[in-house]
Write a structure and sequence with these properties.
elongated; 5 strands; about 5% helix; two-stranded antiparallel sheet; mainly beta; three-stranded antiparallel beta sheet
């Protein structure tokens, strides 16, 4: 991480598949300033991965409410079986 971030979330997408069904195939781990996302694709195909986070300094606004997660990046991934 190039700056202090917190509350990471990733969502996996595939045409014709419910996002909720794919949520169990994505996880993340934070160790110091390194964030690692692990993805296990349930089948071959093209997937989208969206990553969301929020800056550490802006977690709470003046009323004490948490700020919404901010879309950080998007990846298009082609998954296929190894021969």
């Amino acid at each position: 991480m190039s700056r202090q971030l917190t509350d990471f979330m990733a969502t996996l997408h595939k045409n014709g598949v419910e996002e909720k069904r794919l949520s169990k195939f994505v996880s993340h781990n934070v160790s110091d300033d390194i964030v690692t996302f692990s993805i296990s694709f349930p089948e071959e195909g093209q997937y989208g991965l969206d990553i969301y986070t929020r800056e550490m300094m802006s977690v709470l606004d003046s009323s004490g409410e948490k700020h919404l997660l901010t879309h950080c990046c998007k990846y298009l991934i082609n998954s296929s079986k190894r021969n």
